[in-house]
Amino acid sequence: MSDFTEQNLVEPIDGPLPIVFQDEHYVVVYKPAGLLVHRSWIAKQATVFAMQLLRDQLGQYVYPVHRLDRPTCGLLVMALSSEAAAKLSECFSNREVSKSYVAIVRGYIEGEHHLDYPLVEEQDQMTDALAQQDKDAQPAVTDYRGLALAEISYSTGRFPTSRYSLLRLNPLTGRKHQLRRHMHHISHPIIGDTTHGDGKHNRLFRELGHPGLWLFADQLRFTHPYSGEIVSCKSPLPPRWQRVLEQLSWNSSLLLSD
After folding, report:
1. For the chain, what is the domain count?
2. Active-site annotation holds for 69
3. Which one, 49, 152, 154, 166, has the greatest CB density within 10 A?
4. Which of 90, 94, 70 shows the shortest CA–CA distance to 79?
5. 47 or 91, which is more confident
6. Does 30 fall in a domain?
7. Which member of 69, 193, 198, 218 is catalytic?
8. Whole domain around residue 62: which residue ranges?
């Protein structure tokens, strides 16, 4: 697929989007970093979208159920009918869907933590121009825990080395850019975050051959609205994540923990 070479897509893919789960109602795919879910005024130059690719791949129309930010890679659910989309969207709205991410952040974090820090809604200059501008901060809660630590012999400032942590992040609410903003709030920004991150560390990762945002939605769990069964999905490990784990001397088995 030559379209995958467009500028913001940091994970070129030759072939169809990897399907993790599929039945007559839903399909869960792996979305590469840099790929938009659907057409957006924010990125008018984009010509390739997950909805379009999956539609062509399956030979039928698909309906979005939730969002996954453009720079974030990982599991994305699409419905195969408008009714199925409405049913599962309600589950997302009611916080009945469990989402789990892994991230690489600046500095050392160990142990388990619970962050309850309300967030004022972030608005896009173009698409939210008519939205209410003085909304109160909304509840935002994230559980996170350290999986591994790394120190590499590259300087990003006054110290001769740079330190990083691999985290498991579980958002209990669904605010816009919640994980990126929560990690920024505790002064451990996610590497590659150009809005809430640390430019010096982002630059180092690019120079080491690891561009893009290091946030991966690798696990998803929900109760099927039709069958009542638990659907539990885990994404395959993307090659770029395998490479960065090797760079930081982390074993990929660390990501298998729930």
Report:
1. 1
2. yes
3. 166
4. 90
5. 91
6. yes
7. 69
8. 2-128+135-250
